[in-house]
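Exercise: predict the structure of this protein bound to adenosine-5'-triphosphate.
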Amino acid sequence: MQGQGNAVMSLLSLHDVRLSHGRTLVLDHVDLTVDAGRIITVVGPNGAGKSSLLKVALGLLTPDSGRVERSAKVIGYVPQRLEIGRLLPLSVRRFLAMAIRETADKGQLEAMLDTVGAGHVLARQVVDLSGGEMQRVLLARALLRKPDLLVLDEPVGGVDVAGQAELYDLITGQAREAGVGVLMVSHDLHVVMAATDHVVCLNRHVCCAGHPEAVSRHPEYLALFGPRVAASLAIYTHAHDHGHGADGSVLPLDAGGGGHVHGPGCRHG
Ligand SMILES: Nc1ncnc2c1ncn2[C@@H]1O[C@H](COP(=O)(O)OP(=O)(O)OP(=O)(O)O)[C@@H](O)[C@H]1O
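Solution:
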């Protein structure tokens, strides 16, 4: 979705957000912005606060302090998992129809399920779906709402390898072709490095953030993910006659463009 003129429309922003679960501080001084047509991916170890961050962004959790601004009109959300009571009789068709609050047009639902590679499950009970099928149905449900902002918590968890690539292509297409803003949590660092505009490396606070290439060289990123991961990702980088600033802008190498550019989210001195 485009803003007026060449202005990029901000769909969501978090300012200096702090969140505790009981006595545990989960998010500390977190800043983040999602613009239309951009893919922002949050990476970080287990328990780093990634899902909590998405829930704050969606308004499902209230931060202790800080500010959340949402200007997106329609948000499509894929949670990390959805617990549906085993005794609740609910077909996939009904589950999808509920999301769009309309009389379900079977053809429309089937077409969307086909798009996410789950065309065969329309008549199934939700509780009978496999893990990967459920993720595909959750993505279909999010897309049916025609969102201008997609919030995706490990959207391809449990999906087979071929399916993962297809779903990431679909998500990328939403941003590139439909101008949807995407805020995503992912552990698939290869994909993150290849198809994301902006990476936020989270470990309670924002350790570093910026263009994937700059983040992948940042000491805090390397410390979090280890040299073996960093080495396996090196194959995805290529010789560059330029570098990138934290916002993805192109910088000449002699202007320090090959390295990390510190921003307001960097609290590491
Ligand atoms: N409702 C809750 N009550 C208490 N603690 C919670 C609650 N939800 C999350 N936590 C704790 O907050 C921390 C952050 O959890 P969160 O789910 O946001 O992490 P995550 O980065 O998404 O982890 P993962 O990669 O394992 O999914 C964890 O230590 C978790 O145990």
